[in-house]
């Protein structure tokens, strides 16, 4: 029942938060020390070389013991004395793979949102982060970055919890200043670029005038809600047009020719019939 209500997820999130904020120093110290020790081992020891060395020795011993047992007793020693094992693949498929699949779906959805600019601000943040990582990876090795990331992961949350009010106030203040500076820079750049745009429009001739006249100039704030209002207005206008009686006359190729109101002259009809009758025998 707790799984349906999301209790395990909340408990797991709280456990991770408690771990990173050092609420249990002994537990956090063990995890942090284990990660640092693992990184040091990876740095100083060639684990792949050690693994394959132990692997070939173990496989040779296993094959020799099995062969000796079959030769002496008819049953291999490995087959006879091997411990009873459980299927780890089944447990992995039932417990781990569903979580990986769910994570992959969410990750793909978020990547598509960033990649295809569903939210322009988020895409710009991704571009800025990619640029920062590009510069950082140019000067530091992957091992140094991973070690730094582990240290910061176990230090920054604790620092933030202890100084939460001051950090939040500083972030809000500097975020406001950054937005004001960005707006000021955008307005200045727009004013400086306007003469060049006007000059380009004049040099482009009728095309530039047409584009300037028909393309609306929008700001970041003016785009919010305008499309919805425009679509609502156009829909209401279309409904009014459909309800109103059509009294306007069409022009061009869609206009039907007018039917003459005056009747044809009788002598004209007789002349046409006589001419048609005289041509019928000639056709036979």
From TrEMBL:
Instruction: List the InterPro entries.
Output: Reticulon, Reticulon-like
Q: Where is the composition biased (Low complexity)?
A: 231-242
GO annotation, cellular component aspect: endoplasmic reticulum membrane
Q: Which Pfam families does this UniProt record tie to the protein?
A: Reticulon
Q: Which residues cross the membrane?
A: 31-52, 140-161
Indicate the segments forming the Reticulon domain, all copies: 16-231
Composition bias type Polar residues, residue spans: 244-253
Q: What is the protein's membrane topology class?
A: Multi-pass membrane protein
UniProt GO BP: response to bacterium
Q: Does the keyword Transmembrane apply?
A: yes
Q: Where is the signal peptide?
A: none
Q: Where in the cell is it found?
A: Endoplasmic reticulum membrane
Query: Looking at the record, which segments are called Disordered?
Result: 219-284
What's the superkingdom here?
A: Eukaryota
Task: Give the main location.
Answer: endoplasmic reticulum
Provide the alphabetized UniProt keywords. Endoplasmic reticulum, Membrane, Transmembrane, Transmembrane helix
For this entry, the protein name equals Reticulon-like protein
Question: Which organism is this protein's natural source?
Answer: Pichia sorbitophila (strain ATCC MYA-4447 / BCRC 22081 / CBS 7064 / NBRC 10061 / NRRL Y-12695) (Hybrid yeast)
């Amino acid at each position: 029942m707790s799984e349906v209500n999301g209790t395990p997820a909340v408990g797991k999130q709280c456990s991770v938060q408690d771990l990173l904020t050092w609420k249990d120093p002994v537990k956090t110290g063990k995890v942090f020390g284990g990660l640092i020790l693992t990184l040091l081992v990876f740095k100083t020891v060639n684990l792949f070389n050690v693994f394959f060395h132990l692997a070939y020795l173990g496989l040779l011993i296993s094959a020799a013991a099995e062969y000796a047992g079959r030769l002496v007793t008819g049953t291999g020693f490995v087959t006879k004395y091997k411990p009873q094992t459980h299927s780890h693949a089944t447990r992995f498929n039932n417990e781990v793979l569903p979580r990986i699949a769910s994570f992959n779906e969410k990750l793909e959805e978020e990547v598509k949102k960033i990649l295809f600019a569903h939210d322009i601000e988020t895409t710009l943040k991704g571009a800025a982060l990619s640029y920062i990582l590009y510069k950082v990876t140019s000067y530091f090795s992957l091992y140094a970055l991973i070690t730094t990331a582990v240290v910061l992961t176990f230090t920054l949350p604790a620092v933030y919890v202890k100084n939460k009010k001051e950090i939040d106030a500083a972030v809000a203040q500097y975020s406001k200043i950054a937005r004001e500076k960005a707006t000021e820079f955008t307005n200045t750049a727009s004013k400086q670029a306007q003469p060049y745009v006007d000059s380009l429009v004049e040099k482009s001739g009728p095309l530039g005038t047409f584009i300037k006249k028909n393309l609306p100039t929008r700001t970041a704030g003016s785009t919010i809600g305008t499309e919805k209002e425009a679509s609502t207005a156009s829909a209401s206008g279309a409904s009014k047009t459909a309800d109103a009686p059509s009294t306007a006359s069409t022009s061009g190729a869609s206009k039907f020719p007018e039917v003459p109101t005056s009747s044809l002259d009788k002598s004209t009809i007789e002349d046409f019939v006589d001419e048609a009758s005289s041509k019928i025998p000639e056709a036979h």
